[in-house]
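re the bet — no i am not wrong, look at it urself. input seq straight from the record:
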Amino acid sequence: MSERTTTVITWSLEQTSPQDLAPVQEPDSASGIRIVRAEVPSPEFSRFLYTAVGGDITWLDRLPWTYETWRAHLARPGVETWVAYENGTPAGYVELEAQGEGTVEIVYFGLIPAFRGRRIGGHLLSYGTARAWDLAGRWPGLAPTKRVWVHTCSLDGEHAVANYERRGFRLFRTESEEQPEAAPPGPWPGAHA
């Protein structure tokens, strides 16, 4: 019996100038939305964000990471986690990673399911992209940002590509591959059982 597969399309998008960013209007202060950098590397908190945001959309690649792998990754110069909060509750996050020669990747971006569709994502993406453009100012020794890029796939939310394009990202590559079908793991084992 052969393993079931699914076709996954991956889109890579980029900005090559800070002027490419088309930010959404910031929510007013009464909304209770604020975005804060998690400045202390915390494997526990980062894993929580990863599983809470990606559990229903099949984020699997970091699930096997050990505590030490998480710690080493988060301690790297140019890796930042920016967290959106609504009235003190984590709503989502964006993770940035400097990749050399002035390139910064938005490695992860998303909202916890209960916070989707509430106009938080556009603001978080705008804010996170702006932080990618000024990343070198917080990390002495890093080259100034010349390019910000992100990839998303057909397993992510149906509006992901359009959201990136509305923020000024341009498509530069589309790839397709067969992957083994996998059930979304949920934020913890058995959450979707």
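see?? The helical segments are 43-54, 67-74, 121-133, 160-166. told u. also The chain has a mean pLDDT of 92. so pay up
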